[in-house]
Amino acid sequence: MDKLSSLRAFVKVVESGSFAEAGRQLRLSRSAISKYIGELEQSLGVQLIVRTTRHASPTETGQRYFERAVAILAELDAADQAVSQSQAAPRGLLRVNAPMSFGTMRLGPVVADFMADYPELQLQIVLSDDLLDPVQDGFDVTLRIAELESSSLVARRIMPVERVICAAPGYLARHGTPQSPEDLRRHTSLTYGFLLTGNQWKLTGRDGDHWIQPAWRLCVNNAEVLRDVAIRGQGIALIPRFIAAEALASGALTAILSDYIAPPLALYAIYPPTRHLSVKVRLFIDFLVERFGRNAG
Question: Which of 66, 190, 243, 291 could form a cystine bridge with 237, CB 3.0-4.6 A?
Answer without folding.
Answer: 190
